Amino acid sequence: MANKYLSDLQVEKTDEGKSYYTTIIPSQVQRDLFEFSIVTRGIQRFDNLAYQYYKDASKWWIIAKANGMVDGNLFIEPGARIVIPSIGL
Predict the structure, then answer these.
(1) Closest CA to 62 of 24, 33, 34, 89
(2) Could you tell me the pTM of the whole model?
(3) Would you tell me which of 22, 41, 44, 84 could form a disulfide with 76, CB atoms 3.0–4.6 Å apart?
(4) Which of 3, 15, 1 is nearest to 58 (CA)?
């Protein structure tokens, strides 16, 4: 299965000509049969969950978007039920 989110980074340039990466966050994260959910214990962070499940902390936005929590806050309260979507791994 191909990774649905391989092209989630793009290169931008500043006015001074310096290059940097920006994350492209699609309007919707696809739901599929391979996703599962967890209940957080203690305060969790989206980037830590992304590293744990995808081996890539930069994919934090996939988990955040799937849970309707893209507000710039990486922290998740204890006891929250969080959906971990498959990214085709």
Answers:
(1) 24
(2) 0.63
(3) 44
(4) 3
Q: If 0-12 CB within 10 Å is exposed, 13-18 middle and 19+ buried, where does residue 64 land? A: buried
| pLDDT value for 55 | 92
Q: Would you say 80 and 40 are in contact if contact means Cβ atoms under 8 Å apart?
A: yes
In percent, how much of the chain has pLDDT > 70?
73
Residue 25's H or E segment, with its range, is none
Element (H, E) at 58: none
Task: Tell me which DSSP letter residue 57 carries.
Answer: G
CA 21 vs CA 1, 14, 83: distances in Å: 26, 11, 26
Say how far apart CA 36 and CA 34 lie, in whole Å: 7
